[in-house]
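anyone seen this seq b4? input:
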Amino acid sequence: MGKIFIVKESDIKINEGLIDESEVEDQITNLEVAICRTFIEIYDLNDGFKGILSEEENRIFEFYKEILDDQTFFEEIKSLIKNERYSAEKAIYTCINKYIDEISKSNNEYIKQRIFDLNDIAKRLVRNISVSVADENGLKINEINSEQIMVLKELTPIIAASLAKKEVKGVVAEEGAGYFTHASIILRSTGIPAVNGIRMDEIEKFDGSPAIIDGSKGVVVANPSEAEIQDLKSGLSEKKQALKNGRNGAAACERKPVETADGYRIRLLANISSVKEFLVAKKLGVDGIGLVRTESLFINYKRIPDEKRQYLIYSKIAKDLDGKPVVIRTADIGGDKVPQALAINDQSLSRSARGIRRSLEHKTELVTQIRAIMRAGKFGKVFISFPMVDSIEQIMEVKRIIKDISDELAEKKGEPVNRIGIGTMVETAEAVKIIDEILNEVDFISIGTNDMLHQICEQSRKCSTLEMRSYLEPVFLQTLKHCLDKAAEKNKPACVCGEMATDPMAIVVLLGMGAKDLSMSPSYIENTCRFIRTIKLDEAKEAAQKALESQNLQEVKNMLSELTKNRM
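predicted toks r here
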């Protein structure tokens, strides 16, 4: 609850005319000053979130730093000032809009999220040429307080970070606050609810009015009645009590296997990006590590870590898990995860290889990583998985690499090397099409719901990724059910990863569709454990069937909302 505060961006005036030759050096100096000021803003915000955001979430800030530190990018803007006689402001917008045009052509939804970030960088640089620091981020920062619900046209990660530092009650945006955007991730990590897709012209008349924002339902109630306020307070009290009871029962989650109310065993595994996250997961007593995101090693180092460095990390995780499974995914670098600001000046983003495709193009790095993983295999139950697979040829090639490395290591040791299980991420539309062939070649699959959602929904007019809980779209659920059924037919384990595996509504459907393994961030483990124990398998199967047969997303959400009420 809070008062609505309409955020109107400060006017940014661009000099569209040409400058005189005598002004060129002054304009370049203005550009350099703006870059320095913007760097300071980003570093200050980033420092303020240390210990709050996860390692992966903190990388949202790295994109800004990399762009600002990209010498080629800087030289392009300078060239427009020198050769075309553009003002610094016009040169910035011209250069960045060129990259936005490239990104718009991409078929990768994660890359498209960078449009918000690049727009923000352009506005920030231009603002820092002429606007005082008091007008931080284009917000009237001194007028913002912790009792307000902020309403703005476009939310960016940096504006989200600034609002989080102000501890605002909630954020409403016309665009940029969708569930999978970087801005939304920052707000969720700091406990601030957000609602996307609310038109500014519909809410502006309520400026200064009291309001309720419900991020879980995606609604804003302006000028709520006393009855609506009391209902909200009552619901909050119940949730707080349930949370308190849940915390008292946390140890029980660690000691006992996770089962539904009628005894159906579910394995809860953790997705980790660092040793720090691994230690948290181990303390929670997870059933294993469902996904080690090794690209964090690649992104946080200036050079690719050598085999010894990688081996030490993988072997520590394997040893400390005491025989529980650990799935190590080879680096998913590419797309929005490539260092040097997405290699933005090297090639078209729409053609940028990602995942296993990029790894096979950089085979030396891949061989080094696979060798380190295989050597660590002697310390525990280690599996290897490959990201963004979209052809059987890719799987066959990595299997040949694994055999060659196995033969090489065996020759050195004079004894056979421990066999490691081979799996793949199923997260592309192409992988879904060849799921039968994939299952014939691997020991298990991990279903990456985030990437798969975007690819499947791009191909169906009945499906959208704009709404929170888009993964409950019937078209997407049918695709998931197909993958789970095929894995069951071949008697191969299938683990569901991503945001979907942490949402109680989605968990009901996943269990009903036959999912037995769920992998998620360690922070979701306890709540998921407690929720699963309130569900019976029969009711989950019935709910899943209804969801699969539903006409649209809203119908699914309404049905599951009723089922999960008072259990979350």
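The chain has 26 helices and 14 strands. The longest helix spans residues 24-48. kinda curious what u guys think
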